[in-house]
Amino acid sequence: MKYSIAYRKSLAILTTAAMVLVFSGCRATPSAPPTPTPPPITPAPTTPPISTPIPPIPATPSLPTIVPPQALIGSRNTLNSTEYVVFAWNDLGMHCANPTYDKAVLLPPYNTVWVQVIKRGNPPQIVTSGLTVEYRFINNTYSYGKQSYGQFWDNAKKLFGTDLVKNTGLNLTDPAIHNGLSGKMTAKTDHFEAIGIPLTPINDDGSWNPFQVAQITVKDASGKVVAQTDATAPISDEINCGKCHGANPFQDILEKHDRNNGTKLVSQAPVLCASCHGDPALGKMEAGPAHYLSDHIHGFHAKVSPQPACYDCHPGKVTQCSRSLAHTAADGNCITCHGDLSQVSSSIDSGRIPWVNEPKCVTCHAGVAEVDTQSTLYRNATGHGGVYCASCHSSPHATVPTNILSDNYQALQYQGAAKTIGSCGTCHRTSRGGGSEDDDILEEHGGNNPRIATACNICHTSISANVRQWPHAFQWKATSGTGTTRGSEGD
Description:
- It contains 14 helices and eleven strands.
- By secondary structure, it is an alpha+beta fold.
- A hairpin with a 5-residue loop joins strand 3 and strand 4 (125-127).
- Helix 8 (293-301) packs across helix 11 (341-349).
- It is globular, with a radius of gyration of 31 Å.
């Protein structure tokens, strides 16, 4: 049989290769054709991983059932036997959190509750020693495993530089303390606090409630319960940006950032926005070369059309976190205090530090003692006898009254009316009461055993007729009251 020269050359090559393999201890398969050298492969374009879907926000929150007890000042026997009262509040009255933590990340689940315990007397005393304060949340005992919130812990090291035990949170004040969804609060000089609680708006049964309720329990050294109350701990994840950025908003944000700024954030996800843009809300006090995050977000969105509304980002259409009835409106009335998008941004460009330099109550409430807190923010300010403003008025963005029962709980618990603690409007037609001040006060409410207990008796066992010793030196303007007598004349 005759073969072509090409075939004989190929056969020689294969034979030689087979011999090499045999002598090297390998068995060759003579019938196997030679493996061609593959051509260079051009990598396929990188396809971003699919973002975790964001669950839709329910039309209404699933609020727990809470029932305030009979008003403390409504029963003389109960009032006289009460040694301590406790006031609790959230530091902001509103908290936002990402619904996912696998793409762009703005804020962690981070809730803070403050408490003041007051020993009733003449004068009352703020107490932080000899007592323990515990907290828990109604219908909410864990966070990891609910919807996509487990991503916060799974990515905590990359996002926030620390590994966290599941269901414990960050703490920008006391980094060694990682609070959970229940536990003991830390005693400070004039209050107790639990900072960075990793609270989510998802109840244990899967329902959604941005107005979580903290139950506060005060115990003495023997373990006896001496005071209890409830307070709102708001946390909403309506900050999903989906109105403009589509079904995968945080992916879309990273893609647009890369396209407009030459960054590669999509490949680096998850990305904490504050890693480049300073954010005092996360303890990053310096603006950095990329400027403050608040400046960028407000300034950029001031130039788009249509502009987003405040409630599109500061949750939200359902949550409506600006809920103080005296200060809010259908759109939250945010602009009245904070200005519009452009003004928020330009004020930062002019030197304002976001989260540090904020609107002041005195702007609207001038001429009233103790209202001008100077450089101290309302949420950190004290007034009457060292009591925090929020002890009597409640949280910023949620000063009493609101349309959320848990916001009003302490006012109802102690004085039976959703009014500022100590307001004459608890019983009278106006917040300034009625009659000829000195005579009526002495006759009806003065001394250690007044004929009618007032809201002042929540803390004070004796009421002075000197109005300069009252909260705000009794200089507040008259607002409508209940017009009914809730004070106790005895049981």
